[in-house]
Amino acid sequence: KNQVEQSPQSLIILEGKNCTLQCNYTVSPFSNLRWYKQDTGRGPVSLTIMTFSENTKSNGRYTATLDADTKQSSLHITASQLSDSASYICVVGQNAGNNRKLIWGLGTSLAVNP
Amino acid sequence: NAGVTQTPKFQVLKTGQSMTLQCAQDMNHEYMSWYRQDPGMGLRLIHYSVGAGITDQGEVPNGYNVSRSTTEDFPLRLLSAAPSQTSVYFCASSPGGRYGYTFGSGTRLTVV
User: pLDDT tens for residues A22-45?
Assistant: First the structure.
């Protein structure tokens, strides 16, 4: 069964600290892996997209890694800010070139406290 | 550049009523889609379109209709609202390929 599992479910950190969110998937055939940030009451916003041949992608203080062999990805947030408080969703695309088959994880809820 | 605009932001319907959720994008994206987001579940695809005049079903299409007469607009119609359709609905667009989706701000629908 095609699944995307994220851990932890929720996380609380202090402002300025780093954190890493995990994503394991069993989607096949694999096309790409995406990370989205979703603020409360808003739509998801794309952070990174990686294909099979990419093992790291950065977007400002966000760095995503991909290990296609172990089917794992991580999102590292550096020097966290209060505005990083949100849900972070891992999404895996299935079938090369097919945008329509996206398997969505349930997200990790991150709270950054002052 | 407005991106993806959804209206209304909130709506309460009685069981059996019909309504249309509006979605418009100004980025000339060919691909548009509708998702619903429910607690404890990942986003689920309702319907999608790869261009004007072309639509197809996603994983949860029952009870919903769509049309795509222009590149810009992709309305979602609820034919006869049911309490199970209480959810947050998101419209998204993309140029296609390996580009990310741009989402609207969502419509929170309650069916009583």
Answer: 999 999 888 899 999 999 999 999
